[in-house]
Design goal:
single chain; about 260 residues; alpha/beta; 8-stranded parallel barrel; 11 helices; 8 strands; about 45% helix; about 15% strand; globular
């Protein structure tokens, strides 16, 4: 199984890191068999699995539930789990307790926390407690309302300066990696060269140390995808085709055939 040291070594050696965000046993099995470097159990489960508009309603219990399933499906893959909204922002004590629950109950390798300087003291405490932390800057979905929606971040000079400053602060308090979401490619490149920990991009261009996409997006399960998503499969079309074939075979009596029947 990979460790946080493998992330650091990958950056030093120029090896790109592949990450996929997913939430269930079966997709985790597929990711591990495909050799994906790391799985993120994202709080985007609220949108992808539950059909919510944002990640904000997702609970700690739901994240633990999904992370357990993923760990069972990918026992040898480095698994990172999102700490959901208000599971770490209220107090350092809450953050340590909740992150500890995630690590103990799911068998995850690390947690991910959104934000920069304002939550640096929380990350520092988690790291000192032996909990590996992945940072997350740029578009931080838990702050969607404060950001005015799902918009690219870092286009203004003020935003750029803050994200760059935050990246160094996160490195200093001990994160082993930083997700950069929905930022201009040139800014992601600058940050990647600025910090010694690896950067993982999602909508951040090609110059980060790794990339992450949501499993269900890249497999084409939704009609629309964000600009930064490459659809490697048109999964929805294939599933509908298979289900139509099943429906027709049931209606015509073609299924089940003799080989599907117990005597």
């Amino acid at each position: 199984m990979k460790t946080i040291t493998d992330f650091i070594d990958a950056k030093k050696e120029g090896r790109k890191i592949s990450m996929v965000s997913t939430y269930e046993y079966w997709s985790a099995v597929i990711c591990e068999e495909a050799g994906i470097d790391s799985i993120l159990v994202g709080d985007s489960a609220g949108m992808v699995i539950q059909g919510l508009d944002t990640t904000l309603p997702v609970s700690l219990e739901e994240m633990i539930y999904h992370a357990k399933a993923v760990r069972r499906g990918a026992p040898n893959t480095f698994v990172v789990v999102d700490m959901p909204f208000l599971s770490y922002q209220v107090s350092v004590e809450d953050a340590v307790k909740n992150a500890g629950r995630i690590m103990k109950e799911t068998g995850a390798n690390a947690v991910k926390i959104e934000g920069g300087e304002e939550i640096a003291h929380i990350i520092e405490k988690l790291v000192s407690a032996g909990i590996p932390v992945m940072g997350h800057l740029g578009l931080t979905p838990q702050s969607v309302h404060a950001l005015g929606g799902y918009k690219v971040q870092g286009r203004s000079e003020e935003q750029q300066k803050k994200i760059i400053k935050d990246s160094k602060i996160l490195e200093q308090v001990g994160v082993f990696s930083i997700v950069l979401e929905a930022v201009p490619s040139y800014l992601a490149k600058e940050i990647t060269e600025f910090v010694e920990v690896p950067t993982i991009g999602i909508g951040a261009g090609k110059y980060t140390d790794g990339q992450i996409l949501v499993f269900h997006d890249m497999m084409g399960f939704f009609d629309r995808s964000p600009k930064f998503v490459k659809r490697y499969l048109e999964g929805k079309k294939l599933f509908i085709q298979a289900l139509k074939e099943y429906r027709e075979e049931v209606q015509t009596g073609k299924f089940p055939e003799q080989k599907h029947i117990y005597e």
